[in-house]
Each structure stands twice: as structure tokens, then as C-alpha cells.
Amino acid sequence: MAQAAREDVIPLRDATRAWFSISLQTFGGPAGQIAVMQHKLVDEKRWIGQQRFLHALNYCMLLPGPEAQQLAIYTGWLLNGTRGGLIAGSLFVLPGMLALLVLSAIYVAFGETDLVAALFAGVAPAVIAIVVQAVHKVGKRTLHHVALTGLAVASFLALTLFAVPFPVVVLAAGVIGWLLSRRWPIVQDGAGHGAQDGPQPLISDEALHHELPSRRRSLGVVTVGLLLWFTPVAACALFLASTPVLLDQGLFFSGTAVVTFGGAYAVLAFVAQQAVGVYGWLTPGEMVRGLALAETTPGPLIMVVQFVAFVGAFRSPGALDPWVAALVASLLVTWVTFVPCFLFVLLGAPYVERLRHNQHLSAALTGITAAVVGVIANLAVFFALHNLFDESHTVTSGPVRLDVPVISSWDPFAFALTAVALFVMFSRGWSPLRTLGLCALVGLCAYPVQQLLG
């Protein structure tokens, strides 16, 4: 039987320094963030084995929420117990939260100026290209069977044509993935590929964590986690009832925290649908601008919800000063988005340690990940519709409800710049951040010409 890993594999101070260093390098979405942790923890520090790292990643992908941050919590827990998980997860989001808070304030204060308008005229096409690339990357990695391709297409059609709620799509995909695995060998264990060079890691690929699952521990984690999660929301309901947007945002984003399977791009389709179409916190174009800002800051891309909350509360502050309402909303939404990640990981990690090779869970994850391709494709369509065309309308026929563009309202500049962004990302291999920089520069240079041409 594998020997259990000690609570503190390395000194907590050393681990904290490493997590702080990682937190400043987490640009480029979950793939880049996971790569940074892989390099630091597996290749450089040799604190954890390759297969052990990938085992943790596989199970974090089963959870709702940003998998990269959850992987940080999980590996922090492996290295230093609960304290390590709390430190790793907090540092992972802190720099991005502070940066996006500042950028949100700048946008609200100066977003109507010509300079900012020119900047976002450039970055919006880049965001479309980034989301298209995400569809390609996830699809290439995931759709290795015709049944999974069919599941991705069905998910796209369910969202685009029939407005099926995002949580229903995710749940159905998990069930279908499990059912498909019983007929076809579509579930593959990618937990590890061979041995590594170099010294033996401090946590080997077979080591178990010392902390055993127990009813008492689980009850304690759930109780503390739920109190921390919902106390700020209850406080807003009791003491800030004159600003109802705070309660609406607290409840809504608490709900999204439990359905954010497949990463930020997947859930953004749901967030955009509700924040724009139902609550009216911001416009479709502003949703794209928020994602562009989140792309330029470290940390999980789901941090874009902080921008959504800031803008929405600033415009509907109730009895509060708009800036105070925006700040409270921003912090509240960040809290209810990321606290559940700690709850899910710290609650489930001891059980996950004993269920690494459970094929039923892997099959459900396969189905969900396939559906995510369709979900992200739906998001790409949403962004393209509202940024490549100035007008659109809704066509309904029975259960079908489809938003279509007004062709005469097409924006030639946006189309051209989107083509440039797609070219440099797919043909030249440019990173999202570099592409955003190029498109922002083009937008700044071309905007005066556009204004003169009317």
C-alpha cells in the first residue's frame, strides 16, 4: 500500500513564496496557468510527480469552477494540508482581482471617451478570435470519437436554437457521457505517460495524503464553507436592501459557481445571457470588453464576473454612492465565485485520493468536456453577432429561437480585424495577450479614420 504523504511536505513559507511567484505568471487562460504550475511544481521544484499532478487535474476538471485555481488549492493541500490549500487558492486569484478592480473603475470612469472606445473597437475582434481558438483547442483534445462530436454539436444546437438552460446541458452531457462509455471505449485515462527524468519528487505518483475522509471532517468543512459562502449575501439582504442589485448579483453568481463546468468560456455564455438579456447589468459589447480586460490580467478568466458586477452595480446603486455600490458588488461577486472552489476541493480531496481510477466519473467528465466544445462555440457566435454587426433581431418558430444579424449593419473594420486576429493566432501561433495588444494598437490607430468616414 502506498505510504501517506506528510501534512507539510515542504515548509509553508517556501510554498507560499512559490505560490506568490506562480500567481504573477498566470496569464493566458487555464492552459497557460496549468503550464505554469506544471513547470514550477513538477519540473523545477520536484515537489510533486507528473502523474500525481495530472491525477489531481483530472478530478478538478470534474468540479464546477475554474479548474486551474482548484488545481492550485488541491496541490496546495497535498503539500501543506488545509493551510496550504487556502494560501495557494487565495494567492492564485488575488493579483488578478486587484488588477481587474482597477481596470473596471477606469472603464466606468473613462469608458465613454474616444480613446477607450478606440481601444475596445480593436480588442473586441481579438476576443472573438480567442474564443474561436478555444473551440479549436478543446475540440481537438476532446472529440476523439464520433459520438463525442455528435454530443458537442447537440449541445451547440440546444443552446443556440432552443435556448436550453446551460445547467441542463451540462447535466445531460454528464449522463450521456456515462451511457456512451458503456457502449464504446471513449473514455481514456490520460493520467500519465511514462516516467520522468530527474530526482524522485517529494510527493510520488502513488503517495496518498495523510488526511483520511471522515463524516466529522466533511460536516465541518461543509458547515464552515456554507457560512463563509452565504454570510455576505445575507448581510447584503439585511443591511443593504436599498440596493437590490447586490442581492441579485450575490444569488446569481452563487448559482453560477455550482454550474461552471468546462472553464470560464463555457459559463460565460450563460452569464452573458442572464447579465445582458435578463438583468440588464451591461450590454453585449461590454461583456466582450470585460472578457478582454480579464484576458490581460493574471488569474482565472472567470474573474470577468467582477467586471460585470462592478458595471451593473455602478449603474443601479440604489441608495448607495455608485462607487461604493460598485466596490461592494465587485468584492461580493468575487467572494461567492471563488469561496465555493475551496469548499468543493477541501471537501472532496480526501475522497478523490481514494477514487483516482473511477471510470464512471471519468466517463461523465468526458461527456461534459465534449459538450463544452458546443458551449464555447455558442459563446463565439454570441460575441460575433454583437460585435461584427451593429443590429440583430430574433426569429422564432415553434421551439426554435434564433438571434440573427441584420446583414446591412455589418462592420467592415471589425470583420477585417477579426480575420487578422484569427490569422496571427492560428497561422503564427501568437498568444491571446499578444493578439490583444496588436488589435488594441490597430484600433487606436484606425479609430480616428473611422470617425472621419462616419
From TrEMBL:
The chain crosses the membrane at residues 86-108, 115-135, 147-180, 219-240, 291-311, 323-349, 361-386, 406-426. Keywords: Cell membrane, Membrane, Transmembrane, Transmembrane helix. It is found in: Cell membrane. Pfam families: Chromate_transp (PF02417). InterPro entries: Chr_Tranpt_l_chain, Chromate_transpt. Belongs to the chromate ion transporter (CHR) (TC 2.A.51) family. It comes from the Bacteria. It is a multi-pass membrane protein. The keyword Nucleotide-binding does not apply. One of its GO terms (molecular function) is chromate transmembrane transporter activity. This is Chromate transporter.
